[in-house]
Amino acid sequence: MSGHEPSRDVPATAIDAFYQLVDRLEPDERIAFLLCHVEGLELTEVANACGISLATTKRRLAVAERLFKAHAEGVPDLETWLARSPKWAKAT
Q: Which end of the chain is more exposed for a tag (fewer CB within 10 A), N or C?
């Protein structure tokens, strides 16, 4: 789910579930997560946009990604979509 338009192979229910989970993140982590994973910004661009250090950006993004992945487990629409992504797939 990066870029401005949702992928055509991602069902609307997965997109809805994605945003419901993102809404559960703390605002600072949510902003970093969305700028990186939805808007497609690089880490340095996220840091500049937020007016924070690169280290803080990395920390916020790591927290957001960990929480997002944990919350996504058990959500069938998201599990299917995430399993196809190298970034989010479970290690075997």
A: C
Nearest CA to 1 out of 67, 65, 50 is that of 65
How far is the C-alpha of 41 from the C-alpha of 32, rounded, in Å? 9
What is the pLDDT, as a whole number, of residue 81?
Answer: 76
| pLDDT tens figures, 32-53 | 999 999 999 999 999 999 999 9
Instruction: Report domain extents, the chain.
Output: 12-83
* Global pTM value: 0.80
